[in-house]
Amino acid sequence: MKNSGFTLKKRLKSFRYAFNGVFLLLRYEHNAWIHASVALCVIVAGSLIGLSSTEWLFIVVAIGTVLAAEAINSSIEALSDLVSPEYNEAIKRTKDLAAGAVLILSIAAAITGLIIFLPKLTLL
Q1: So what's the pLDDT on residue 2?
Q2: Structure pTM?
Q3: What are the transmembrane regions (predicted)?
Q4: How big is the chain by its Cα radius of gyration, in Å?
Q5: What is the CATH number of the domain that holds 99?
Q6: Which of 9, 77, 84, 112 is the Cys-Cys partner for 88 at CB 3.0 to 4.6 Å?
Q7: Could you tell me if residue 76 is inside a domain?
Q8: Cα four-point dihedral sign 120, 48, 104, 57
């Protein structure tokens, strides 16, 4: 793709495409609904409990990485289905690896949440 230089109009347009990607993720990807719902619950709980700035930092990074991984996974799945609509072992492996990455990050995010929330909940 030819790069014709930087313009503010092009940068603003790229943000529109990115926001459309977030919309598509949250509108059509069922697993993203689960992640977003859990994220909303964590945000509400964190607000009620009164997390520190450092704790919020970890929560925001955990939520962001899980949702970003889900977006990448969904992109890989969509492109794989276009390239090879019929069963293909290499495509299956690719999709499984991408889903596994989301699972790893989701588990890490859950552990992060437990480390932050459990001590606060035991004090209540």
Answers
A1: 66
A2: 0.89
A3: 32-50, 56-76, 97-118
A4: 18
A5: 1.10.287.3610
A6: 84
A7: yes
A8: negative
Distance from first CA to last CA of the chain, Å, rounded? 57
- The single-letter DSSP state of residue 80 is H
Structural domain includes residue 77: yes
pLDDT at 108: 98
Domain enclosing residue 64, as ranges: 53-116
Following CA atoms 26, 30, 34, 36 in sequence, which dihedral angle do they give, to the nearest 10 degrees? -10
Residue 34: the pLDDT is 97
Splitting the chain (124 residues) into consecutive groups of 10 residues, what average pLDDT does each group show? Answer: 78 93 97 98 97 98 98 98 96 98 98 97 78
Scanning 29-88, the segments in alpha helix (DSSP H) are 30-49, 53-83
**How far is it, in rounded angstroms, from Cα 46 to Cα 117?**
8
The answer to whether residue 44 is domain-embedded is no
Q: What 8-state DSSP symbol labels residue 106?
A: H
Whether 58 is covered by a domain: the verdict is: yes
For tokens 């700035």, name the residue.
Answer: 53
